[in-house]
Structure formats: structure tokens, C-alpha cells
Amino acid sequence: MKIQILLRKIKNAPKAFKFVWYLYLNKIARFSVLPSLLSVLGIKNFRSYLWRKSGCNVGKDVFIGWDVYYDVGNAKLITIEDEVSITNRAIVFCHRRDLSHYYKGDNYKNVPFIKLPVVIKKGAAVGTAAIIMPGVTIGEGAVVAAGALVTKDVPAWTIVAGCPAKVIKVLEDRTE
Amino acid sequence: MKIQILLRKIKNAPKAFKFVWYLYLNKIARFSVLPSLLSVLGIKNFRSYLWRKSGCNVGKDVFIGWDVYYDVGNAKLITIEDEVSITNRAIVFCHRRDLSHYYKGDNYKNVPFIKLPVVIKKGAAVGTAAIIMPGVTIGEGAVVAAGALVTKDVPAWTIVAGCPAKVIKVLEDRTE
Amino acid sequence: MKIQILLRKIKNAPKAFKFVWYLYLNKIARFSVLPSLLSVLGIKNFRSYLWRKSGCNVGKDVFIGWDVYYDVGNAKLITIEDEVSITNRAIVFCHRRDLSHYYKGDNYKNVPFIKLPVVIKKGAAVGTAAIIMPGVTIGEGAVVAAGALVTKDVPAWTIVAGCPAKVIKVLEDRTE
């Protein structure tokens, strides 16, 4: 199988080329209409497949919208559990400069990076254009509103919104 | 005419394929330099044409910037009146989960959707990267500032800004 | 050299076509994996090169992430000094409607534009999805947080965040 040989070659290629390949897979997931076309033809979760192929841990029945970017260079730090929804244009980041080591007169480019995992727990939902920062865990069933900037952990069964995101509602038990 | 036959075929194709086709038209409107090239050659409003072809109600002399996404699956719920400006990377959404039916322990994916129209009235302007949520009407001549998250109706002749957007200025009558 | 002839032709073409060409260069800088591939092969700063070719003043050793959009039609108003970092999906704008001339009943499309330069000083960093508005100068070594909307000048050696962006930290001298 030619494709399998190609894939094996890619697997053995240096990490750097892999990164470019993973970027390309993410590009397909973000902008191509192919995932939607496949979905119409009955092949669901093609975006989840592309994310997995480029290193993320992605569970079952995960919905991923268009133009969702994840930290391709640190994809192994990303865990998306079952039944999560990530809507359009959201961003998931796993690295940033450690600004606690940044002083007046320093060269920003020499400030060390910190890499931290992002975990989106079962059934949680990330809204349109929300930004998930490094180290954040989004609890089970939690909802991140559109446009939110999530800098801290989100407790399970809450709704958060704003820049930076704060809890605006704690979900209640069904009383019926 | 081959193109007309193709277009007729598309019109008769199942709704699902139409959705993919509409997504593709939106992709051209968002990322291609073709609309700008046509504009230079004297053919204005190509983006408006693409939006109309994919189901939106778009008036005359509407300016649409690059990478503006609208709710392709619910385009019929979108009305853009004459002389509206929608700047780069704005988002117009017409559906969301009805979180008033979401309780602790529920499966988010079973929460019902609500679909609500978005109306952008005559001469209104939507700023860069603003997000217009379902059900919102933006009043005549109103201005939505860059980066605003519009969750409620915007009164005519006002300027709104922020996340969520609030009125920051009421436009005055000309005194000259 | 065929390419050189083509480039000369483009140089002599009307301003309007140049604009489309510059948009295309920006499109490559924003979405192509080519800059990452070249970077892996040892050719750094390809995005800076594309920005320069389309009119921006870009210094040495500048990092530009994917999907960063600048005001292509007013690129000459943009100055990026040495060692600046501009992260993914940031936006740099140099023109806007002058709303101080906008009154109730006016046609928004007749409101005059103001065009103002944007300067990002040496070693400054612009975070993910931040929006830099016309006329802003970002001081030396300053850091703009992810998702910030920068409407005013950012003092040197400070960190700003929020919509609109405010100083959240003044960087201190090293005491060691």
C-alpha cells in the first residue's frame, strides 16, 4: 500500500518534518470542507481522526468545529475526553513564556517557555472563538461561553464567560 | 449551459450536500483573494453574491470583509439590510444550545438547539472580530466595536463595545 | 529570469492590482505551511519577508505566527522593530472610520476614514488573537496578553490585558 509506506516514512522522519505534517493535518481539519462532506456521507468524526493522527488524545464522539487550532507542536499535552464539543475558531494552547522570569531590560525571546497540559473532561463544551490557555482543565459537563479567555481551571458543571473567564452559573440538579 | 445544469443539479441534491456546497461558497468568500480581484476589475459585492447564493438575505451595497463566517446551516435566518458593513473576521451565529434545559449530570449533546434570526438593519456596522449571537437585531446605523460579543439587541444609532457588548455612546443629532 | 520580469511587471501595475497581490502574499503568510517547512529547512523569517514584500517595515529576527493579519492596504503605516514576537491570529489595523464625525441619520459609509501608523517597538510581544487598533504604539519590551484589544499606547516594559487592554503589571528591574 503506497499510502502506508508514505505514512511509515513520515513516522520515521525527523521531528521537525513531522511538525510541518501535523500542521498540515490541522490545516485540513480547520479549513477544508472535506470533514463536512464525509460527515454527510456517513463518515463522522474525521476532524477527531486528524487531531489524533497529529498527536492529541481525543476520545469518542467528540465534536470539533471549523478553524479550531490546537498547539500542534505540543499536541501530546492535549486530552479531549468523550462527548466533548469544541466549537468554531476556538484555540487550545499548551505553551507560553514564563513571564515570572521576565524583567525590565530582558530579551523576551530568551524568557523560558512553560509547557502545561490541557484537559477537557467528558461532555464539556468550548464556545466559539474561546481561548484555552496552558495548564487549564475544563471540568466534566462544563460550558465555556463564546469569546471567553480561559486562564484558570473550570469547575465541573459550571458555565464560564468573559475575558478572563469567570463562573457565571453553577448548574443545578434536576428537580423533576 | 453546463454551469446552469450543474447549478440545477445542486439545487435538487439533498439538503446535506447543499450544506457542504454552501460551506464551500462561504470558504471562497472568507479566504479567496478573488472578491478583491473582481472588485479591482469593477465587479463589486462578490462576497454579498456568495452569501445570497448560500441562503442569506443580503441587501444592496453591503460591504463584507475577509474571513467573515455566518451560520451556513441556518443562513435563511440571517438578514443583512442595505448599506451594512461587516468587517474582517466577524461571526454571525443563529443557533446555540438552550442552556436553560441543561442540568448537572445531563449529556450536553442532548440539550436542544434554539435557532433564532439575526437581523442587521440598514447602515449598521459590525467591527473586526465581533461575534453576533443568535436572536440579535442590530439597529439602524448602529456600530459594533471591534472584538465585541453581542448577546442582546443593539439599539439604533448607538455604539456598543465589550464582552458582553454594552452601549458606550448614543449618537446625537447633527446640530449644524 | 522569468520571475524577475513578472515581479517588475507587478511593480509597474496599478496600485489596485498590487493590493490584491499583497493580499495574496499575506494569505500565504497566514495559512500556508510553507513558512514552517522553510523554517525546518533552515530558512527562518519567511513570514517577515512576505510582510516586507507587501509594504510593512519589519526589523530583524521578528517572529510572526500563523493567521496574523495586518492592514494590507495601509502596510506602509506598520513598523515592526527588531526581535518582536507576534503570535497567532493577531490583527494589526491602521484605518478606521472617524466616529467623531458620525451623527444620527448619517450614512456610515460616508464617514471619513482616519489612517494612523502602528509601531511595535523592539522586543515587544503581541499575544494570540490580540487586536491592535490604528495609531497604537507598543513600547519596548511590552507584552500584550492573549485576546487583548489594544486601543491606546502601551508603555514600555509593561504587560497589558483585557478588552480594552489595561496595564496589569509593570515589569521590574532585576535585583539579582
Q: Largest sheet of chain A at a glance?
A: 6 strands, mixed
Strand percentage of chain A, roughly?
15-25%
What is the number of E strands of chain A?
A: 16
The helix/strand class of chain A is alpha/beta
C-alpha end-to-end distance of chain A: 57 Å
Please, what is the average pLDDT of chain A? 93
Radius of gyration of chain A: 18 Å
Strand order of the largest sheet of chain A: 2-5-10-13-15-16
Tell me the quaternary state.
Answer: homotrimer
Taking pLDDT < 50 over at least 5 consecutive residues as the criterion, the unreliable ranges of chain A are none
Specify the overall morphology of chain A: flat
H/E element sequence of chain A = HHHHEEEEEEEEEEEEEEEE
Q: Assign a percent range to the helix content of chain A.
A: 10-25%
If interface size is counted as residues with C-beta under 8 Å from the partner's C-beta, which chains form the largest one?
Answer: A-B, 32 and 27 residues
Count helical runs of chain A. 4
